[in-house]
Design goal:
Strand content: 15-25%
Helix content: 40-55%
Radius of gyration: 27 Å
Number of strands: 23
Distance between the termini: 50 Å
Number of helices: 20
Largest sheet: 13 strands, mixed
Shape: globular
Amino acid sequence: MSRLRIGFMTNEVIGSYQRLLFQAMVEQAQIAGVDLISYEGRCIDSPLFRDNQYNLIFDFIDHHSLDGLVISSASVFSFIDSFEVNRWLDQRFELPLVSIGWPLRMASNILLDEQAGFTKLIEHLIEQHHCRHFVFVGGVEQNQEAQDRKMVFGQVMANHQIDHQTIWLTGDFTAQSGVEAMAEVAAMIAQGQRIDAVSFANDEMAIAAIDYLNRMHPELVNQLVISGFDDCHYASMIAPSLTTVRQPFEDIAGQAIGDLIERISQSGKKQSGKNQRGKLQTYHFGTEPIFRRSCGCIPQHSERQAQLHRFAGSNYKMHEMTQSYDVDELFAQLATGLPHFDVVSCYVALYEGGRFHHTDSGHERIPLQSRLVFAYHQHQHCPLQSAIVFNTRDILPASFLAVDQPLPLLVKPLMFDNQHFGFIVFDVSEGWLEDMEDIRRQVARTLNAALLFEEKSKAVREVELANARLLQLNTELEKVNELLSKRSVTDELTGLYNRRGFFELVRQYAVTDRTLKRCTLFYADMNDLKMVNDKLGHHQGDYAIQLVAKALQLTFRNEDIIGRIGGDEFVVCAKRCGPNDIESLVQRFEQSLAQCNEQSSLPWDVSSCMGYQVFNGGSEQELEHALEQADRMLYRNKAAYKRRKGQPNEPN
């Protein structure tokens, strides 16, 4: 008998709440012996930039390929009310459903009794830490969990007759709203307002707020009592560790999968339809407070430590090693790179018919068929003699689904801007979720460029066959070639030269046997990029990288060659620059970076370390040696910076 296949509809799995629930779902599916297909989109009707582009992946959910579906309703439906949620679902799924967090009329519902745990936490702050003047930072107003937590908080304040002293602020469950709320709290305190404690409706806002205090107002860290809700992955890692409320994610995930298995067995496997959902149930789970250092308590259990292998692992950089405008070459590079990560399986599929423009209306948008063009299966690259065509909603061809052990698969869209061309699938039984998202992002960017080249080649063939349109097509081709030529030497994020462009220009200027040309090579590296990406998101990290690039452009002359050769690594060839010019250029860079920080919208100041080496021209080997010397100086400066901040001195 084939295994049951359960779908899991969730938003970004590296989020604080979503990560814990996702990991619990994967573990419980393995225990139950069922396949788990997770569809990672974003929040429905999210106001955030391009979130709805990711939600095309929810159109993959289909009753012909799944036996049941679990929906992380509390997070996926954060921005719409219950009426809109039910209407949205009515238009889509004919599957046995389980909803986690929101009560849905067509599903078994798993609801969280937040009152007991949250009440105990707030009463602990009042009775044990003598807090009387509270600020409460809520979540999205139409979200049911946000409403429940606000109501419980208000009841506790009223019961202790301190509700008149409470300040209410609105958040949206995101890290940015936590930073904005804490900045407002700091301003109130500076104006003489008494505040004892700040309670956030989730951990993501609370963790970002603590990080903001550590950077901007360290004098308030021990003055304010701070609490959150969820006990997310980083709650015990931040300093001070976060007092919060824990949800029983393993029990919730186990109940969700168990309910579907029971109902499917009652109604008959593979019998889809709205009348085949079995008996619907409602389950309630309690919560418990977790007291840590952010409220002044010593943790009851040892605090979780970061998984150090994540930070001290392979130096293989996927974004540098997958740079090609040829699809076959791209996949060869990907096959070489994946063994450096703990990825069990990775598959890339392209839509039949090519890319298409995704609008935000309608739900029958994905092509019926797709082509499997890359397969890294069970730790081995499986070269494909030709692309395998299969039903898109099946996720993979049947041969790759027929394995002995239950499969936990994660499906992510491949797109560039609003142009969609395929999807990528990971086996998540091993590996780091951040690595998988980095791989998805890089594959999408590189594949987009590769497809542009394929489209260019197709245009050339059409020109040869359609002589009547030769002039018009040649004009279009010249424009495409100009764009592609510029992209081949330009970094998309910053507009600087990329690795190829930088070294080509430096060789033209300084690598010669006849005329020696003096220059100075500068090597710069942004500080704390990984922490920013992990805590505030890759969009904030990208913006920080752009600030460093702008500061370099303000510092150096137009004739100087500036390049970005890695994620946060920059190099500069300052022409006709000697030893007497270096100190002033370094000072000018620091001033330019400070100016950029003043004009930026980031909640922290971007900083960078720099090394340099004078190069009087010469051979290719001498150029490489000069760059190595600049890199060594950068490494020493980076190590000194980390010592000043009390960070471990990890390799670049």
